[in-house]
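Subgroup meeting minutes
Present: P.N., E.W., G.H.
Scribe: E.W.

1. P.N. recapped why we're keeping a running log of single-chain structure predictions: easier to compare across weeks, and new members can see raw inputs and outputs side by side.
2. G.H. added today's entry (114 aa).
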Amino acid sequence: QVQLVESGGGLVQAGGSLRLSCAASGIIFSIYDMAWYRQAPGKQRELVATVTSGGTTNYADSLKGRFTISRDNAKNTVYLQMNSLKIEDTAVYYCNAKFRKNYWGQGTQVTVSS
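Output recorded in log:
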């Protein structure tokens, strides 16, 4: 059974930082491309960042320079370091694993306050 379990969300003041983690099980983690998405209230889910099985990273243009995605294949975990958080970063953040099939985590809430 495939499981993606996100953690690290919470309430933070604008300008602060959070580090999200997504622990994967039930898949051969190293061959999967991993990604973080987010969905704000009333909006569509949007791509935040991706890291391929080979370690290549890509980011939404609006987030470059503030967010960093990384992966640790030994721990079957992907991370999202979020710095200089803004109120508009408030959303549920989802972990995604893709290799022939797509798997999703349950999401973790990030709330940025003024």
